[in-house]
Write a structure and sequence with these properties.
The chain is mostly helical. Helices cover 72% and strands 0% of the residues.
């Protein structure tokens, strides 16, 4: 059991007072989220209002909200720890998050031109049919469910540590409470409520990280060179800290390089097409507004990552990697540990205020992402499965559809809470790797082919979605993440045939290959963007959509 990171200083403000302030901050964030969602919830029972907020978000606001959807607790907490422990290799990992947004920028215009509410809308525009809707919705729900477990676990672990509650029971209680409250807020508030929460989260995170980075630079006389020198001297690895190789030294297995490549592919290609991030693009008025939103989000995320990298270097300079690893083996305590050493430590009043502000930002980070995931899952159930697959109607039962969407959000959240309750004693990295690999191996190939390959067929689309997702699940089953190691999901069994942690290097090519093979083997079929006579695409119709390259470079509206 590790000691809470804020107990390192001599208390003039007691540790108990600090814990109380952290608890108050956590409760205020949750109450504010509930109030905002209730206040801003849709006044009329319309699908467009609930799912995308009537598409009235300005690019600046939507950019902040998109950054709020994209920046998870792993980005804020994990990046600082990786840089603090791994130096140069940590900087490389941090850059992958920005590369994912660059890829998203390339997809934003064409995707917004073809989609209405969900990913299934984009795919159904090319290949109308129930099979496409159901398959896309199932893959979306699977990715959302796994990522929901990751975020609920993160907020439970971080909150419990900050409050000094290290037992699994306390973590489970926090996960259940957080999941229930955010689910209720999202089911009532819809996209408008989620947008308010995500925008506020981005602002709070920027303010908190700016203050920590400023206090850190002030300690070194506002001289970045002095900070870098101190990091090299104090980190414990010496000059090797700023050279490649520390990450490999921590995992000297023969498959390390392949694993590292897989991790980077998962981050770059998977994070760019996470369903809750892509749904945010549909809340914009048109393709150009979607691109501008991504540009704004890229600026916000770049600022967040720059600050977390600076804080990671500051942790190495002021605390040292050895002490960080002793307190937090994975490095996730770097942000809070460094915050606790600044401004006289949390034992002083300024230090306690700064610590509580940063803790509040961490809470808000996870809550905002959970809200986005829950809303995306509800849209997949209400819009794709109920309206288009089950009812097959476009004008009737709108209120029933939204009711189904809300209850669907409750069902997905209940499943996610139950999995989190059981999984808090497991290796949570597995859920993150599988979610990212699923998105990169099924959703990304399907999107790329749908938007940019005119000969992509319905069979190719189904093979990509179903085959890519199945490939990830099957391959991951035979890795050490599931069996063969003490940290595995099944530590007392060993059927690990693949010496990999992430199967992305195998599953991503598989997803692209299945889409290509499924399309070229149906030479007598019409392309997916040319449905049979008398059948039009969903949304605005397949024949009313300009070619994807025209939508990319000559946006309409």
């Amino acid at each position: 059991m590790t000691a809470p990171v804020f107990l390192a200083a001599e208390p003039s403000v007691s540790a108990g007072d600090t814990r109380s302030a952290v608890l108050i901050g956590f409760l205020l964030v949750v109450v504010a989220a509930l109030f905002a969602c209730l206040l801003l919830g849709p006044q009329r029972e319309e699908a467009e209002t609930f799912y995308v907020g009537r598409r009235r978000n300005k690019p600046l606001r939507n950019g902040l909200a998109l950054a709020g959807d994209y920046v998870s607790s792993a980005t804020v907490v994990g990046t600082a720890g990786t840089v603090a422990l791994m130096g140069f290799d940590g900087l490389f990992v941090a850059g992958s998050a920005l590369a994912a947004l660059v890829l998203l920028f390339l997809l934003a215009g064409p995707l917004r031109a073809r989609g209405r509410f969900t990913l299934a809308d984009v795919f159904a525009d090319r290949a109308p049919g129930t099979a496409v809707r159901v398959t896309a919705a199932v893959v979306t729900l699977l990715v959302c469910l796994l990522y929901l477990v990751v975020q609920l676990s993160a907020v439970a672990l971080v909150t419990a540590q900050l409050l000094g509650l290290e037992t699994v029971g306390a973590q489970r209680a926090i996960a259940v409470m957080t999941g229930v409250l955010i689910t209720c807020a999202t089911a009532v508030g819809g996209m408008r409520g989620a947008t308010a929460l995500q925008t506020a989260k981005s602002v709070v995170v920027l303010v908190a990280l700016t203050l920590v980075a400023g206090a850190l630079l002030a300690r070194f006389g506002w001289n970045p060179a002095a900070l870098l020198d101190a990091a090299e001297t104090t980190n414990g690895a010496g000059p090797a800290y700023f050279r490649p190789g520390l990450l490999q030294r921590s995992n000297p297995s023969a498959s390390w390089t392949f694993d590292f490549v897989g991790l980077q592919l998962s981050i770059v290609l998977g994070a760019a097409v996470m369903p809750h991030v892509l749904m945010r693009l549909h809340a914009t008025p048109g393709p150009e507004a979607a691109r501008r939103s991504v540009r704004g989000a890229l600026l916000v995320v770049a600022t967040v990552i720059a600050f977390t990298v600076l804080i990671g270097l500051g942790t190495a300079a002021t605390v040292g990697s050895a002490k960080l690893a002793a307190v937090s083996p994975g490095g996730t305590g770097a942000l809070m540990l460094t915050t606790g050493t600044l401004a006289g430590g949390p034992g002083s009043t300024p230090g306690a205020i700064l610590f509580v502000l940063v803790a509040t930002a961490v809470f808000a980070t996870s809550l905002a992402v959970i809200a986005g995931i829950t809303l995306t899952a509800s849209a997949a159930i209400g819009h794709d499965l109920y309206r288009h697959a089950l009812r097959r109607t476009h004008a009737q039962d709108r209120e029933v559809e939204l009711g189904t969407a809300r209850w669907g959000a409750v069902a997905v959240s209940a499943t996610g809470i139950a999995l989190t309750y059981a999984a808090l004693a497991w290796n949570m990295q597995m859920f993150s790797w599988v979610a990212l690999a699923l998105a990169a191996s099924s959703l990304l190939p399907a999107l790329v082919y749908s938007l940019f390959w005119s000969r992509f067929t319905q069979r190719g689309l189904l093979w990509t979605l179903a085959g890519g997702a199945t490939g990830v699940l099957v391959l991951q089953t035979f890795t050490p993440v599931v069996s063969g190691l003490p940290s595995s999901l099944l530590p007392h069994h060993d059927f690990a045939l693949l010496p990999l942690q992430s199967v992305a290097p195998l599953s991503i090519p598989l997803g692209f290959a299945l889409g290509w093979l499924g399309s070229i083997t149906v030479r007598t079929s019409r392309p997916a963007d040319d449905p049979p006579e008398g059948v039009s695409g969903q949304g605005r119709g397949a024949h009313s959509i300009p070619p994807p390259w025209e939508a990319a470079f000559h946006p309409q509206g």
